[in-house]
Amino acid sequence: MKGREGSDREMCEVEREYMVVTDGLRVRESDIPPYKLRGETAELRCDYELESSSIYSVKWFKDDEEFYRYLPKDTPPTHYYRMTGVTVDKQSTVPARVVLHKVGFNSSGQYRCEVSAEAPDFNTVNCRGSLMVVEPPADGPVITGGRTKYHVNDTVDLVCTSSPSRPPSRLSWLINGRQARPEFVTKERPYMGKDGLMTQISRLVFVTRPSHFHGGKLKIKCVADITGETLAKHSAFSHTFKPWERLFLASAGGQVLTPPASLLLFLFLASTLGLTRLR
């Protein structure tokens, strides 16, 4: 006979796992939503089956701290433990499905369900997944600084400030549709407001060259995206929360000759001077 400390444990380390089986204990499906909007309800599922023995316990953890326990032989069988960021909807919750009411930013973390069979084996299956609580920006980024006209060799100095969000926006710069060179960009650490939302600031500084002016125009965009590496793999999130863009438009403060045009002018003048000397 195996005691609790010596039990066999099977882990499913993904957000969704189907048919996890260990000696008669089966988890048909586990589902920890990867993200939720602040204030929404989050449903954590761990659907299990027992083929031969009965259930000993079902436990739920956040960041390895227990907040829910079901032991059918106890009176009462269900126990709740207080935890910051975790408010269990007791009316909607059953052992295989825990419902969290009005999630907040401190609800983010790694959740785990632990299902254990009765004696003599005490076989146990653990399934886990990460939940991130987000709030998208209410508006696009704002560009400050700059002038309406620039000459070649002028310095462009712009600041882009994101709208508050959680997680903070990733800001990127485009100059005439092309990614700005890294040495042009300086990013500050995001700062957090009293409401828990975060604002990101990025500065773009570069010296204009003829190639920066297309048709006498200089187009600069600041793009704000909250997807990030963690959420980028979830197509539903990326599809729902499109990046915000803000356009800055300036004109050339005089005639701008691109390198090919400058070369043609040089060749024309050289040939003209050559013909004049020959005469």
Describe this structure in words.
The protein is mainly β and 279 residues long. The protein folds into 2 domains: 9-134, Immunoglobulins (Immunoglobulin-like); 142-254, Immunoglobulins (Immunoglobulin-like, Sandwich). The protein is built from 3 helices and 22 strands. The protein has helices at residues 228-232, 235-240, 259-278; strands at 9-12, 16-22, 25-31, 35-37, 42-50, 55-62, 65-70, 78-80, 97-100, 109-117, 124-134, 142-145, 149-150, 155-161, 170-175, 178-179, 185-187, 191-192, 198-199, 201-207, 217-225, 244-252. Strands 1, 4, 6, 7, 8, 10 and 11 form a 7-stranded mixed β-sheet that branches. It has a 5-stranded mixed β-sheet with strand order 13-22-21-15-16, with no helix packed on it. Strands 2-3-5-9 form a 4-stranded antiparallel β-sheet, with no helix packed on it. The chain is elongated, with a radius of gyration of 30 Å. Mean pLDDT is 82; it is low at 1-21, 256-270 and 272-279. Residues 39-126 form the Ig-like domain. This is Ig-like domain-containing protein. It comes from Petrolisthes manimaculis. The chain crosses the membrane at residues 256-276.
What is the topological layout?
Blueprint: E1 9-12, E2 16-22, E3 25-31, E4 35-37, E5 42-50, E6 55-62, E7 65-70, E8 78-80, E9 97-100, E10 109-117, E11 124-134, E12 142-145, E13 149-150, E14 155-161, E15 170-175, E16 178-179, E17 185-187, E18 191-192, E19 198-199, E20 201-207, E21 217-225, H1 228-232, H2 235-240, E22 244-252, H3 259-278
Parallel strand pairs: 1-11, 4-11, 13-22
Antiparallel strand pairs: 2-3, 3-5, 5-9, 6-7, 6-10, 7-8, 10-11, 12-14, 14-20, 15-16, 15-21, 17-20, 18-19, 21-22
